[in-house]
Amino acid sequence: MARRRRRQQSQRTLPAGGALYLYDLTTLNDILYLSGGGDIEFNQHNDGNHNGSLYYSIPFGYWTLSAYGAYSQYRQQFNGNWSTMDYKSKNRYYSATLSRLLSHTRQQKTTADLRIAKSTSHYYFGGSELLVMRKQNPSWEFTLNHQHYFNKKIVDASIGIQRSLPWLSSTATPEEQAGLYSPLSRIVHGNLQAMMKFDATGDKFIWAPRLSAQFSPDKLASDNKFNIGSRWSVRGFDGENSLSGNQGWYWRNDFIWDLATHERQFYLGADIGRLIGADLYQKGKVLSGAVSGLRGQLWSTQYDLFISTPLSKPDKFHSDALNMGFSLQWRY
């Protein structure tokens, strides 16, 4: 479960969830994963939020076939002088992936993934669907992944290309009808991350950088745009707003100290992200933020306590000056 404080009135959230992993159900080294969650603190602002996912994979030789499906629903009530109106969003995502192990030694591992996926989003206000906001995003994606092991260092890298699949669309969305994005859009994305221990600190200090980037020559649908300003990209912000564009990058840095006590770490983080494109001058391009926290494990519970703050942002980009939160994960 996780909890965090936010700026807007009565938007404190207390989500909780659970997950079930089942291994080797068919004695073929297959994996089944089920998860579900939702708000356990209900009020007029976050009543009805829930999500779930299902994953299954089965290997055969150097190949692995997997399928994944997920849904989420968000509901918010707006109280007026004479009535109460509901705003609701429903999101679905489905994918099938075929993976191939290309090379594997004691020092490295290389794989290739081919994925076909489709996501849909529907929005409702007062019980009626907002048709102009309907979205769907079918695509295929090919990605090369490489992991290399050095002495006290691990480096992960990936590069991939994504293309739209118009024939998987049921109907043209309002975005497509208005010409706001290309139905044959192309995206190139890459990630590079590492974990490095240093002998001078007695293996107690770890530097964990991560660089992520996306490039595209086409107009992209809103679901495919590159976003910065969340806990999963540039930290330090409350998550209420983000910057998005067709192209961009972010660089995260974690400086981690292993404490003397068992399975406990103190960390500092400094992140920066930038959107690329001449059409973004009026919106702002750069976000940077900092975070510090304590994470570890106590018995069967993993915890993460953190506090973060923005370092730089556009003048019209609103975010709390200080954001605090924690997350708990219990396993048995």
UniProtKB/TrEMBL annotation:
PANTHER family the record matches: OUTER MEMBRANE TRANSPORTER CDIB, SLR1661 PROTEIN
Domain of life: Bacteria
Protein name per the record: Haemolysin activator HlyB C-terminal domain-containing protein
UniProt record, GO biological process: protein secretion by the type V secretion system
Entry GO CC: type V protein secretion system complex
Domain Haemolysin activator HlyB C-terminal: 12-296
GO molecular function: protein transmembrane transporter activity
Lineage start: Bacteria, Pseudomonadati, Pseudomonadota, Gammaproteobacteria, Enterobacterales
